[in-house]
Amino acid sequence: HHWLHTRETRLSKFNQTEIKAMLGSYTKVLFVRDPFHRLIATFLQGMGITPSFSSFIQEVLDSGMHNSSTAWKPLVSLCQPCLIQYDYVVMFGFLRQELGHLLRRAGLPAGSLLPELTDSQVQWTYRWLSEQMFSELSAQQKKQLSHFYRWDLAAFPFSSSFLSG
């Protein structure tokens, strides 16, 4: 196939037959993260130009779906989980456990390649941050965010997300 020798990396550049052949030849892993946690991480990394989390969220909501940054765009629109059959879906917050399983399946030594931070520390930290940040938002912003991420919340098990309520 000519796609073996091309530099293109976007699937949209290939026809359906080529896409099917390529996807069938790879183990497909999708890493997913609670959309509210993604927003918090983006804000803390300084990607929002506003001083408060609430005004950053307003920027996100005002940008809409089509002008969204990939840092906060809904995962369903980025990763097409309804079209691509992923072999594994790895949830952020369970990385150590799930990556260990993946590495063992691939025949790699799991112990030395995993991050130091434990999943329980990650979950506790984001739970605390979520409570603090969520309390800064207006009822309208909370409702709009839940709507903005409705397909992510339906597609993935983010049952403990602050946006699920």
Give a quick summary of the entry.
The chain has 165 residues and is mostly helical. The protein is built from nine helices and two strands; from the N terminus they run H-E-H-H-H-E-H-H-H-H-H.
Q: What does the model show?
A:
The structure is a single chain. The protein has 165 residues and is mainly alpha-helical. It has nine helices and two strands, in the order H-E-H-H-H-E-H-H-H-H-H. It has a domain at 25-96 and 115-155. The protein has helices at residues 16-24, 35-44, 53-63, 75-79, 95-105, 110-113, 119-135, 139-148, 150-155, and strands spanning 29-32, 88-91. The chain has a two-stranded parallel sheet. Helix 3 (53-63) crosses helix 8. The longest helix is centred in the last third of the chain and has 17 residues, at 119-135. The model has no long low-confidence stretch (mean pLDDT 81).
Major sheet, described briefly?
Answer: 2 strands, parallel
The percent of residues in helical segments reads 40-55%
On the 0 to 100 scale, the average pLDDT is 81
Task: Give me the Rg, rounded.
Answer: 18 Å
Beta-strand content estimate: under 5%
Biggest sheet, spatial arrangement of strands? 1-2
* SSE sequence, one letter per element: HEHHHEHHHHH
What is the tally of helical segments? 9
What is the overall silhouette? globular
List low-pLDDT spans: none
Question: Which terms summarize this structure?
Answer:
Carbohydrate sulfotransferase, Sulfotransferase, mainly alpha, transferase, two-stranded parallel sheet, 2 strands, 165 residues
